[in-house]
Design goal:
Blueprint lengths: L4 E5 L10 H9 L4 E4 L3 H13 L3 E4 L2 H9 L5 H11 L6 E8 L6 H14 L4 E6 L6 H4 L4 H12 L3 E5 L18 H10 L8 H14 L3 E7 L11 H13 L4 E5 L26 H21 L3 E7 L15 E5 L3 E6 L4 E5 L6 E14 L4 E12 L4 E6 L1
Parallel strand pairs: 1-8, 2-3, 3-4, 4-5, 5-6, 6-7, 7-8
Antiparallel strand pairs: 9-11, 10-13, 11-12, 12-15, 13-14, 13-15
Helix pairs in contact: 4-5, 5-7, 10-11
């Protein structure tokens, strides 16, 4: 990754993505990177419009999808080279979108594709998104989630680690019919329907962070936005909570699922309340995300060039997490229900872990602190009480 980016998974259709109104709306919402997975000619037209608005794209091309689907090792080099040559005139391609949620059995062909892109397109990234930790062993086709991650790093040699994790359930009960669907889709539906307010969000973040840091790979998360299946319509505070948890764990890119409302009459997923509807009309989440993106962009840019050092939980802890005690220049924190991330450059990010209520936390440090107010850092001294609204966070540095 070259810079902190905000992106999305599942964007506008081929009809809309080539129009200035649509692309302008994406940029005005605070996105810097798009996912572009239309036919080749549409992708090129869209890239031309996006360039005018300062947007880059991770490009998905059907020729690469076919390589992956058919496990066509013999043609990897020829196809990858043809794709790279075909898009040679575009300087706003950030990378190549390969696939979503592969199993461990898919890693050999992905490794071959990534290797080819590293040779023919060395200045760009490849993008592969992984399952969350609530995927079953049958979905992973591995013994456990940790093994799945480790095999991915070893066999694929990815540019970074991306995963999705949808934490907020509780939508009114949806259909549990599993007839006339693929085995892959059946397993996804079973996994989604298991619980409400799913446990394991932090355990997943801890594991992705650990594997990323151990292998010098940056990390990103696709957060839930669109209401679908058992996943409820999120509030502004819940969206803010998700994004701030990405930042406190040191993730270098954030993605929302979804920007565009998926079509279809599926009685299981039944999508509602995305950022834009199928005609490009702005829904409430457009304005929620626009506000959030404006808030987090300078924080993400500040933290981009430093690495996560430690992450602690204050108050209640969960599996895989560690409780805070004195660390770095912070001696004590009075209060509960928060997450605090320490970074190698001395920055500290403190997040209210409550996505419903305000939270008050008093920080005691052995050096003077300054806090970021959206435009710059403001001096607050060695002791300060932070009143954080639901899901809110504060960036701290030491003078």
């Amino acid at each position: 990754m070259r810079k902190f980016d905000i992106t999305y998974y599942f964007g506008p259709d081929a009809k809309h993505i080539i129009t200035e109104d649509c692309v302008s709306d994406i940029a005005k919402c605070g996105f810097t990177l798009t996912q572009l997975c239309c036919d080749t000619e549409t992708n090129k037209k869209a890239l031309t419009v996006m360039r005018k608005y300062g947007l880059c794209a991770d490009v998905g091309d059907s020729r690469i999808s076919a390589l992956f689907r058919d496990k066509d090792f013999s043609n990897v080099d020829a196809v990858v080279k043809s794709v790279v040559d075909d898009y040679a005139d575009f300087d706003n391609i950030e990378g190549w979108d390969i696939t979503d949620e592969p199993s461990t059995e898919d890693f050999p062909i992905l490794g071959a594709i990534v290797s080819a892109f590293r040779r023919y397109s060395p200045d760009k990234e490849t993008y592969i998104n992984l399952f969350p930790n609530y995927a079953s062993d049958k979905q992973l086709k591995d013994t456990d989630y940790t093994s799945h991650l480790e095999h991915f790093v070893k066999e694929v040699n990815p540019h970074f680690i991306s995963y999705d994790h949808y934490h907020f359930l509780g939508r009114p009960k949806v259909s549990e019919k599993y007839d006339n669907i693929s085995e892959r889709e059946r397993l996804i539906r079973i996994a989604a329907n298991k619980t409400e307010n799913r446990a394991g969000f932090f355990e997943n973040a801890e594991e992705i962070r650990r594997v990323g840091l151990e292998n010098n790979l940056e990390q990103m998360l696709i957060v839930l936005l669109v209401e679908h299946g058992p996943y409820r319509n999120l509030s502004f505070e819940e969206l803010l909570w998700e994004v701030n948890m990405c930042l406190v764990y040191g993730f270098k890119r954030i993605s929302y699922f979804t920007y565009w409302l998926p079509e279809g009459d599926d009685d299981h997923w039944h999508y509602e309340n995305s950022i834009c509807d199928t005609d490009g009309n702005k829904l409430q989440h457009y304005y929620d995300v626009q506000k959030i993106n404006k808030t987090i962009m300078p924080v993400g840019e500040h933290l981009f060039n430093t690495k996560s050092q430690e992450v602690f939980h204050i108050g209640e802890s969960e599996k895989g997490t560690r409780s805070f005690s004195q660390f770095g220049k912070i001696n004590k924190i009075d209060g509960n229900n928060a997450v605090i991330g320490f970074f190698e450059d001395g920055s500290v990010y403190l997040v209210n872990r409550d996505y419903i209520n305000e939270n008050s936390l008093t920080v005691y440090a052995d050096s003077d602190m300054s806090v970021f107010d959206g435009e710059g850092f403001k001096f607050v001294g060695k002791e300060f009480t932070f009143n954080l609204s639901a899901g809110e966070a504060v960036l701290i540095k030491f003078n």
